[in-house]
Structure formats: structure tokens, C-alpha cells
Design goal:
Blueprint (H helix, E strand, L loop, with lengths): L1 E3 L10 E3 L1 H6 L13 H15 L23 H4 L2 E6 L3 H12 L14 H12 L8 H4 L5 H14 L5 E6 L15 H6 L2 H10 L1 H15 L8 E2 L12 H32 L1
Parallel strand pairs: 4-5
Antiparallel strand pairs: 1-2, 3-4
Helix pairs in contact: 9-10
Length: 274
Amino acid sequence: MVISWYNRIGGYDWIAIPLIPYLYAVTKPENIPIYADRKIVAFLRDQYLRENMQELAPADPSGQAPGVNWGQLVGSAYNRTSFAYEIETTAQQDDELIRWLNSRPNRALYRVLSRNCADFVRDIVNFYYPKAVSRSIVADFGITIPKRVAKSIAKYSQRHPDLEFVSLVIPQVPGTGRRSKPVRGIVESVLKSKKYVIPLAVFQPYAAGGFALAYLVDGHFKPDKSAMIFNLDSTVVSPLTGDERYAYRRDLDELPRAFDALVAVETNWEVKSR
């Protein structure tokens, strides 16, 4: 089960949704497409919303699905590669978390700088392990971001090797949609973007040096290091080597061309058969 927290979704602060629909917009693993273009993704999301979420997201008077924000709850793996972290908890702790969430008003309280989705994750992790996740004043100017949460969890597991801890990467489903980009912190985004770092280095070289120092001191972290490949059947899949990762990305790049060629062949066959 995924406790999802997005802005402007039905006026709720959080919503729980099963893992498979959250990632792939289907209810059964065998229905997950190995390749999905934009039309397939839109169809799967619309179908799941209509069949399973009418009470939360009813269609408008014209029969159309609700606003685009509801699409964030289903089919996440079509939009991006995600990183997940398994941490050890007890059934009692899980029950206490549910009581804690249900005891609070479930009303939207989203604020970009002080109470965003990463802050929600920070609160959940700290509920289990107090002070495990913190904001970074140096690298992120005190704003909680997803990469900082991941780094905090990884460092906490290193300080407590007795805890069961697993890092996972959930690959983006191959398709025609925009490919996922690396996760970056605030200082890191400035340093690795030419449109920001070049003017900064020319006109404010000391500031550019300060950003570089902040990144080296507290902003460097690779979430994919030693991460296992997520598998729905719960088997452990070892992380890819450099050569395997290159081959995988090359195959993903070839899939759209192969898919287009297949569609062209089928269309040509249909025309000739008529």
C-alpha cells in the first residue's frame, strides 16, 4: 500500500492506494504493459479511475475524468524512475502510524517550501525512527527535498547496521513519454545546469564557489548506488553493472523505433488486406 501525498487532489491531505495501481494503473501484474505510448497510459489511468475511484474522483457532467492531478495517483512508473527504501518496522508500529494518520484532519495543507510531499515522507520516517530524516540548510536552503530524504535514510541505515534495510530502483516503463531525469538537490541543480552556473561563475564567481563547496560538503549523494532492481514477485535482483546499465538504456532507446516499425507494418498489412 502507498500513502500518497499530492497537492490539490480532492481536498485531501493524503490518500492510500495499492502499490500496483500506483505504479502501473492496473490491478494485476499480468496486465502491466512492457511498452506504453501516451495513448496507452491515458487509457489505463482513465480506466482505473472510472472503475475504482469514482467516489473520490467522480467524472464531470460531460463524462470526462477529473483534473490532471488525479493522474499522479496511478501510473507513476510511466512518468519516472523511482527509488524506494525498505526499512524495518513492526506490526505494532504500523498500527500506531495508521491511528496517528486517522486521528488528524485529512485536509489539504500543502505548502511548497515548508510542507511539501518530501516533508510528509520525513514525518512518516521520523514517526518510526525519530530524527532519522532532517532538512539540509547547506545544500537545500532548509527546504525538504526527496533526494535529501533518501540520503538521510541511507545514512541512518549505515549508523544502525542491525536494522533491515534495502534500497530499490523502480525502472520507468519503456515508452514514448519523456524519459526520467536524475534526481537533484537545490544546490546541485544550479551547479549542473549551464543556464545557471555559467552566468553565476562569470558575474558572481565567489557565489559559484560557495555553491560548489555546499554541494561537496552536504549535497553529493547517488541514490542508485547498490540499489536492487524492484520486482513484483519479491525476488531479489542484483543491481546492474555499468555494462548492463548501458545495454539496458540502449535497448530502451531502440524500443520506440521498433514499436513504430511494428505499427507501420500492421497498418500496411491492413491496407493491403482490404
